[in-house]
UniProtKB/TrEMBL annotation:
Disulfide bonds join C31-C121, C64-C80, C127-C276, C165-C189. This is Peroxidase. It comes from the Eukaryota. Removal of H(2)O(2), oxidation of toxic reductants, biosynthesis and degradation of lignin, suberization, auxin catabolism, response to environmental stresses such as wounding, pathogen attack and oxidative stress. These functions might be dependent on each isozyme/isoform in each plant tissue. It catalyses: 2 a phenolic donor + H2O2 = 2 a phenolic radical donor + 2 H2O. It comes from Arabidopsis thaliana (Mouse-ear cress). Its main location: secreted.
Length: 281
């Protein structure tokens, strides 16, 4: 399957793991109407019910990260393969009927997109790609952050961040990691009480583009950071930020503003709490 899968990751959604060859315009030649069709159908449903964003996010999360232990008789692999969309049969129970997935909704949106695409370009656009594209569009409609925003926020935040050794043990097993940095981290992490290290080894007290330069040199301490430099959908952004600190600064400020405006309550909405840890009403 030619998936253009992504992680939101997330959350991190958010942050992209390398599931596949994610790129805008993947179907430009084979099915030029693919992305516009998905966008149109998602926009229609979003205008009727804005909770479709949450529904599609949950659908993709459950599809990509299956808990096989809860599926009892079934054996499923991890991955964004749209297997969550498959109905159960008496002979073969599916992920959709698993206890953890009974409240997943939004299947009718995917079905509608698929029906339209099968008319204009049969057997071309994968179901997994429809889920990914639909989720991406629904996030944008909800005022979410785009890929450039997320790369700026992750790098900008981590440029003055720290992490405990327990959070990056997997990175120390990576043979491509800068050997001098690896040795330094291994030595530090031998200490008691789960020591912490700065994520930006060059300018740990400044929000700048140094962390992107380190990612380019295989010196990203967290897996999430190093993956930004490896994934096709983010590596070019990392390179641009590493080369141009002014560009990074502009994009970071822009992303902070967008994030600060997501679902802000205004006017008579919400409440003014007299104590920030207690709901007033």
């Amino acid at each position: 399957m030619r998936a253009i899968t992504a992680s939101f990751f997330i959350f991190c959604f958010l942050v992209p793991s390398v599931f596949g060859k994610l790129r805008r315009g993947f179907y430009d030649s084979s099915c030029p109407l693919a992305e516009s069709t998905v966008s149109r159908v998602v926009a229609k449903h979003h205008s009727l019910n804005q909770t479709v964003t949450a529904a599609l996010l949950r659908m993709q999360f459950h599809d990509c990260f299956v808990n096989v232990r809860k599926l009892l008789l079934c054996v499923f692999v991890y991955g964004c393969d749209a297997s969550l969309l498959i109905d159960s049969t008496p002979e073969r129970p599916s992920e959709k009927s698993a206890e953890a997935n009974v409240s997943v909704r939004g299947f009718e949106i995917i079905d509608e997109v698929k029906k339209e695409l099968e008319i204009v370009c049969p057997k071309t656009v994968s179901c997994a790609d429809i889920v990914t594209l639909a989720t991406k569009d629904s996030i944008a409609l909800a005022g979410g952050l785009n890929v450039t925003n997320m790369v700026a926020l992750i790098g900008g935040g981590h440029s003055v961040g720290v992490a405990h050794c327990s959070l990056f043990q997997d990175r120390l097993k990576d043979p491509k990691m800068d050997s001098k940095l690896k040795a330094k981290l291994q030595n530090t992490c031998r200490g008691p009480n789960d020591p912490s290290v700065v994520l930006d080894q060059m300018t740990p007290l400044e929000v700048d583009n140094q962390i992107y330069k380190q990612i380019k040199s295989q010196r990203g301490i967290l897996r999430i950071d190093q993956n930004l430099g490896l994934d096709d959908s983010t590596s070019r952004i990392v390179s641009n930020f590493a080369l141009n600190e002014t560009l990074f600064g502009e994009r970071f400020a822009e992303a902070m503003q967008i994030m600060g405006e997501i679902k802000v309550l205004t006017g008579n909405s919400g409440e003014i709490r007299t104590n920030c840890i207690v709901v007033s009403h």
